[in-house]
Amino acid sequence: MPCKKNAIISEDAAREYAESIIDTVREPLIALDQDLRVVTASRSFYEVFHVKPEETVGQLIYDLGNKQWNIPKLRELLETILPQKATFDNYEVEHDFTGIGRRIMLLNARQIRRVLGKERIILLAIEDITGRREIENGLEKARKELAATKISEDAAREYAESIIDTVR
Q: Which of 25, 71, 122, 158 is most exposed, with the fewest beta carbons within 10 Å of its own?
């Protein structure tokens, strides 16, 4: 009986340790079981997506926030790509969330096996790149406008030179 008790204590200590690490991460992080139910999530996940642990833990990821997480590209990642690869980096998903608006996210996922048992846990890190993408789009627009201005300037110069040549 002492071995079983020690195993339970060790599993509890390991869970607390893992949850401490998850809470330390600044980007939203969520841990899912093999049935895609939330095991735990980081503090930043709750803050960014305006959800509470009691309405998140134990729920199917697709049911979170009144089914706001029922995103086709997320389904593709979790149900098709991840089972084949075990890891995935920089999977881009765009979605409009109630309360926080449109977000462009980079998802990174890892499948890990629990220390005791055969179950797998999926760690899903979510990086909001909405601001970065808006800046990139603004820079691209400015580049195009600058190129158009340069073309207009060149055309004006050629026109002026042709008038001067005509006058001579």
A: 158
Quote the longest CA-to-CA distance of the chain.
108
Q: Is 159 exposed, middle or buried (0-12, 13-18, 19+ CB in 10 A)?
A: exposed
Q: What is the DSSP string of 108-140?
A: EEEEEE-SSSS-EEEEEEEEE-HHHHHHHHHHH
Residue 124 phi/psi, 5-degree rounding, is -120, 110
For 29-42, the pLDDT digits (tens) are 999 998 999 999 99
Domains and CATH numbers, the chain: 2-128 (3.30.450.20)
Its pTM stands at 0.71
